[in-house]
Amino acid sequence: MKEIDYNEIPLFEGIHPDNLNKLLICINSFKKDFDKGETIIMEKDKVPYIGIVLFGNVHLLKEDIWGNSSLLSYVGPGELFGENFAVSVEQESSVTFVAVEKTRVLFLAASKIIHTCENACSFHARIAENMFHLLGKKSISYMNKLEIMSKESIRGKLMAYISTLAQQQKSKYIKAPLSRTQLADYLSINRSAMTRELGKMRDEGIIDFDRNTFVIK
Amino acid sequence: MKEIDYNEIPLFEGIHPDNLNKLLICINSFKKDFDKGETIIMEKDKVPYIGIVLFGNVHLLKEDIWGNSSLLSYVGPGELFGENFAVSVEQESSVTFVAVEKTRVLFLAASKIIHTCENACSFHARIAENMFHLLGKKSISYMNKLEIMSKESIRGKLMAYISTLAQQQKSKYIKAPLSRTQLADYLSINRSAMTRELGKMRDEGIIDFDRNTFVIK
DNA sequence: GTAAGTTTGTTGCATTTGCAACAGATTGAT
DNA sequence: ATCAATCTGTTGCAAATGCAACAAACTTAC
Question: Closest nucleotide to B192's CA, by C1' atom?
Answer without folding.
Answer: C9
